[in-house]
Amino acid sequence: MLETKKYILTVEGETEEWYFLWLKNQINNYEGRSYNASIVPKVQQSPRSFYKGTNAKVSPEIIHVCDVESTDNDHLKKFENILKEMKEAKEQKNIKYQLGYSNFTFELWMILHKQDCFGPFSSRKQYLVPIRQAFGEKFEDLDHYKQEAAFKRCLGKLSLNDVKAAVRRADKLAEQNIRNRKQLIKHCGYSYYRDNPALSINEVVKKMLTECGVMTKTTK
Hints:
- Helix 1 packs parallel to helix 7, helix 4 (106-112) packs parallel to helix 5 (128-135) and helix 8 packs across helix 9 (201-211).
- This protein has helices at residues 14-28, 47-51, 73-93, 106-112, 128-135, 142-145, 148-155, 160-179, 201-211, and strands at 4-11, 36-43, 61-67, 96-103, 184-187, 190-193, 198-199.
- The protein has 220 residues and is α/β, with parallel strands linked by helices.
- The longest helix is centred in the middle third of the chain and has 21 residues, at 73-93.
- The two termini are 30 Å apart.
- The strands form two sheets. It has a five-stranded mixed beta sheet, sandwiched between helices.
- It has nine helices and seven strands.
């Protein structure tokens, strides 16, 4: 009987929730795993609202999945306020938050399961074309893609191998950002890139896969 690794997440929306529930099933259906995974994603945009209702004994570590959205001042202020709330969780309740962000959006992570997406965009709407290409769909717009039936149809076209490929592509993207000397912003103990494309959600997923024995740290 395998032991279980538990991961508690707060996520911005339903697509992220559906994705991580799907990922849990993929891990637990993998015959070569070392541990089962309990992945509990809760739709809650505010880390503060969540950590006030729990404690370090119940939830010593939490992962927050969110978007940078744009370089607009309002979006950056919103994002950095989230980082502030995550820092407060450690100070006030000794709860450690890990950041899994996407810049611009979670669509970047989804695209990387099937293809590279290393060029910058000027609008979040521009993710529609590569989403269509990656999943062989003809979505009218991103709202259509985010509908439950449509999004879960996309998930049905993915496998654990695609998740591993997304991790590798995201790692290459991170290397590209370092080579291009993009400015890494540090705020409240967390780091992020204001310029897209950039993400750290791959580190969250990599942690789950490696700890559950589904992927090794040296996997290429």
